[in-house]
Amino acid sequence: MGLLYGLIAVGLALIFGLMDVTNFAHGEFLMVAMYLSFFLFAFFAIDPLLSAPLVAAALFIFGAVVYLLLVRFAMRAKANAGMVQIFTTFGLAIVMRGLAQYFFTPDYRSIPQSWLGGKTISVGGIFLPEPQLVGALVSIAAFAGLYFFIHRTDFGRAIEATREDPGAVALVGIDKNRVFAFGWGLGAALVGLAGAIMAVFFYIYPDVGASFALIAYVTVALGGFGSVFGAFAGGIIVGLVEAVTALVLPPSLKSVGIYSVYLLVVFIRPRGLFGSM
Amino acid sequence: MDKDFAARRRRDLIIAAALATIAALTPLFVKDVVVQNILILTLMYAGLSQSWNILSGYCGQISLGHALYFGLGAYTTELLFTKFGVLPWFGMLAGGVVSALIAMGLGYPFFRLRGHYFVIATIVIAEIGLLLFHNWEWAGAAMGITIPIRGDSWLKFQFLRTKLPYFYFALALCCLAWFVTWWLENSKWGFWWRAVKDNPEAAESLGVDVFNSKMGAAAVSAFLVAVGGSFYAQFVSYIDPESVMGFQFSLLMALPAVLGGIGTLWGPVLGAAILIPLTELTRFKFGGSGRGVDLIVYGTLIVLISLALPRGLLSLFSRPKKTGAAR
User: Fold this and answer.
1) Can you tell me whether residue A261 is helix, strand or coil?
2) Which GO terms describe its cellular component (chain A) (predicted)?
3) What is the C-alpha separation between B283 and B99, in angstroms, rounded?
4) Which of A3, A184, A247, B225 is most buried (most C-beta within 10 Å)?
């Protein structure tokens, strides 16, 4: 479970953590991805596992378009930039929820049969549900990929440089909007991947994103802004804490553990575990 | 103090008195219950947003967890009323004091945090409060509390046949929050807050007590919001954790101030006067379909206003001279 939170958080870590843009519609990106993979399954009988790359590609375009049409202008605000970003993306989230209700109705949907759904696999005597296992593997791969991307490629370095000083990168010929549009696309594609996998074992409904979004923010902040590894570690910690809390407290209180750990961590380390900002 | 500033403050006070008088007279002409309802909510959110603005606007500590104080106010009042028979008027004060104390208690660790870390911490603490009330049997858990109806009475602050007392209380709350803001704006605290917001390090080095000025702002802000929560509980006469402590309240308190002009005296009132009727009307017109059209309209409005007017609607009225004169 923890690695799944990690997977949702990794996209956010890129947008929120590395580019320092607040995205309150992250949960709704996830929702869109889950619906996409549901409809690909319902109409074309494509298993979510196969359609995952398609969903990720669609979300890439979606994320880049959102950046170019909305976020770009929100970032240009001269006053209250933070609040403008919060409320622009929050407004977008409400619109997306409304649209989902309008077109998909508020009904709960699920993907009844898929290659992975409901199966378990035994690893050294411990039974693990397959979808979660695949999710965990994809998550590790995604983190490794992102880490490599940020630290080893020119484009990754361009993203960090652009956040640090947009004026200076313009001087060396980097187009800020192209870099950030690509970053948003990539962030959305990662959450698309998460959505495609989660569609297998979660109910899909217009508000599904909200329940995961806050945990994703907490995960990113717990690990510290500006650190890919931090978000990964945050995901694992969140998952472990949730599992432990579930043993001690009633299920409805399971998130309290996660939230308390976040508060505890930032009280001791105000920049998160591995944060640089 | 410079002359323009003093004149502006006097003018603000006169405008406020005039607006309050006009507002107080509206029930003479507006008899429609639906419209009265919208007016009450508008005044309430104007007051709440004004209170939120003290901590988040003037002092710059963006809180998206004020639903906690709203809910604490509502719950303190109603628990005292239903379990111990304490009159809501005292409950209201108690709720305010409880919230202010909790806000200060939380302030100790919270005010060390900056930026996103602080905002997320405020969301998270409100969410913890929500979950705890959800599981607190004595306080009704998820079922909430239904306030027993014992007939119209000022003493118990409940009225079945008329909404007017609620209207006047909401108006009084809004005026109180406005007046507190107006008064603090020109006090030592008001100047400290703006200094803390603009540059905490510089403020500290000039002898501003940064930590205590944040605490002061948090306490005043939480107290007023809790009184609003008590009022709301009496007004709707049924509360459960979601309906008084949900995240949406934190946003609904912040939105009017942000749309009107964050950190300004008139922003919250202006924002609420436009936003709340719009929200209620879209819900009234499109909400019945259950298909989310009201959400689409509402969300689009938020996006458009925050993109078009990052300084808030108030920036439309301000003349360039004001920036120079206000300092």
Assistant:
1) helix
2) plasma membrane
3) 31
4) B225
Q: What is the C-alpha separation between A135 and B300, in angstroms, rounded?
A: 34
- Asked whether the beta carbons of B314 and B266 are under 8 A apart, the reply is yes
At A130 the pLDDT is: 66
What is the average pLDDT value for chain B, to the nearest integer? 79
CB B42 within 8 A of CB B271: no
Q: Residue B84 sits in a domain of what CATH number?
A: 1.10.3470
Q: Do B117 and A217 touch (CB under 8 A)?
A: no
Instruction: Tell me which chain A residues have a C-beta less than 8 angstroms from the C-beta of B295.
Output: 94-95, 97-98, 101
- Contact residues, chain A, for B307 at CB < 8 Å: 70, 73-74, 77, 84, 88
Other CB atoms within a 10 A radius of the CB of residue A203 amount to: 12
What is the domain partition of chain A in residue ranges? 2-106+125-207
pLDDT tens digits along A51-106: 778 888 888 888 888 888 877 777 776 666 677 788 888 888 888 888 887 777 77
Specify the 3-state DSSP secondary structure of A184: helix
Residue B17, both tokens: 């008195």
Instruction: With CB atoms and an 8 Å threshold, state whether A102 touches B291.
Output: yes
Question: Would the CB atoms of A263 and B291 count as touching at under 8 Å?
Answer: no
Q: Could you identify the residue written with the tokens 């440089």?
A: A161
- On the 0-12 / 13-18 / 19+ scale of CB atoms within 10 A, A277 is middle
Whether the ipTM is more than 0.85: the answer is no
Among A199, A71, A254, A275, which residue's Cα sits nearest to residue B127?
A254
Residue B158's DSSP bridge partners are: B153
Cross-chain CB nearest to A221 (options B120, B127, B294)? B120
DSSP-assigned states of every residue in A106-173: S--B-----SSTT-EEEETTEEEEHHHHHHHHHHHHHHHHHHHHHHHSHHHHHHHHHHH-HHHHHHTT
Q: Is B278 on the interface with A (CB under 8 A)?
A: no
A95 with B258: Cβ contact below 8 A: no
**How big is chain A, counted in residues?**
277
Please count the other Cβ atoms lying within 10 Å of the Cβ belonging to residue A127. 8
> Which residue among A87, A102, A271 places its CB closest to the CB of B306?
A87
Range of the domain at B195: 3-326
Count of domains forming chain B: 1
The pTM score is 0.82
- Please, are residues A142 and A190 in contact by the beta-carbon 8 Å criterion? yes
Contacts of A142 (CB under 8 A, 6+ apart): A7, A10, A190, A193
